[in-house]
TrEMBL record:
Binds amino acids. Residues 217-297 form the ACT domain. SUPFAM superfamilies: ACT-like (SSF55021). The keyword Amino-acid biosynthesis does not apply. One of its GO terms (molecular function) is amino acid binding. Residues 288-310 are annotated as: Disordered. This is ACT domain-containing protein ACR. The keyword Protein biosynthesis does not apply. Residues 297-309 have a biased composition (Low complexity). Keywords: Repeat.
């Protein structure tokens, strides 16, 4: 599903599924730039297994479309699609990137506004595109905060926009990461028009920033039951909490996952509100995660060439260290996805 984000939307969706007799087995949801995308795995709550009857599928889809539709704005774009399980299913997080790209969450995306004269010391996202005419490449350079899966998100965006990467260099230092890609379009041409460069810039900024966690992280581990997601999100909504990101699934008889929440205005959550939510859900089922984000200190690596610089320290979770171990596996999965 995709549509305009609003406070309480996930609660409304999960309540609708519960009323329709659907059992939610897994959910992943992202929000970015006032847009929402989510993938929910459901089973027939009465018979078990996937919902296959055409009449029942149509009923579920119609109900969800009515929920996702923004109030007082029938012209707002939205999408609800029900699909049966299939072999070779697309990676869930890559599919979320594709959904948000199709929903144009990249529109009006801006990194650094250009007011800083030097990138050093600026923690905003920078994307620049230059031409390498002697080789026929366009050179894309992105600088942003380093984080887990940054490389994956960037390459997904380039691939889904049908750009081919011929060479790349990636490095991280402190909390920041630099990525440089030499790309061409699939037809072999470099980026020609200013509109094309602007669109790619917006899309890369969106791909880099849409996974960034906003808000307080609440970890859930409790006995699985029908209607659990509806109950959890109802408590969040009734206490004025808005979900910015969610991921929850079942492991045997247990439901395990995480929610990132803010208040309805997008600000930090009042600790007293969190305590009220914990008491209502159950202190042992809901835990406030206060772990700091991992940041790397110094690393570098390159594709198609070796780096001549020596690295004194290589943090375990740096983007540079992940490059070699992930690139070969990722490249085998980057075939074009046809609707």
């Amino acid at each position: 599903m995709t549509g305009r984000d609003r406070p309480g939307l996930m609660s409304e969706i999960s309540a609708a599924l519960y009323e329709l007799g659907c059992h939610v087995t897994a959910t992943v949801a992202w929000t970015h730039n006032a847009r929402m995308a989510c993938i929910i795995h459901v089973e027939d709550g009465f018979k078990g297994g996937p919902i296959m009857a055409p009449k029942r599928v149509a009923e579920v889809q119609e109900k969800l479309e009515n929920v996702v539709e923004a109030p007082h704005d029938s012209g707002e774009r939205r999408s609800v699609r029900l699909t049966a399980p299939a072999a070779g299913r697309t990676h869930t997080e890559r599919r979320l990137h594709q959904l948000m790209y199709a929903d144009r969450d990249y529109e009006q995306c801006q990194g650094c506004d250009g007011s800083c004269r030097h990138w050093k010391g600026c923690t905003k996202t920078h994307v620049t595109i230059e031409s390498c005419r002697e080789k026929g490449y366009s050179v894309v350079h992105a600088r942003s905060r380093d984080r887990t899966k940054l490389l994956f998100d960037t390459v997904c965006a380039l691939t889904d926009m049908q750009y081919v990467v011929f060479h790349a260099a990636v490095s991280s230092k402190g909390a920041m990461a630099d990525q440089e890609y030499f790309v061409r379009r699939q037809d072999g041409c470099s980026l020609v028009t200013e509109d094309e460069r602007h669109r790619l810039t917006e899309c890369l900024i969106a791909a880099i920033e849409r996974r960034v966690s906003r808000g307080l992280r609440l970890d859930v581990c409790t006995q699985n039951k029908r209607g659990l997601l509806s109950d959890l999100t109802r408590v969040f909504r009734e206490n004025g909490l808005s979900i910015t990101r969610a991921e929850i699934g079942t492991h045997g008889e247990r439901a395990i996952g995480s929610f990132y929440v803010t208040d309805a205005s997008g600000h930090d959550v009042n600790p007293r509100t969190v305590e009220l939510v914990r008491q209502e859900i159950g202190g042992s089922a809901l835990v406030v995660n206060k772990s700091p984000d991992r940041t790397s200190r110094a690393s570098s690596s390159s594709i198609n060439r070796s780096s001549s610089s020596e690295v004194e320290e290589r943090p375990r979770f740096s983007l540079g260290n992940l490059l070699w171990s992930q690139l070969e596996r990722l490249s085998g999965n980057f075939g074009l996805i046809k609707s």
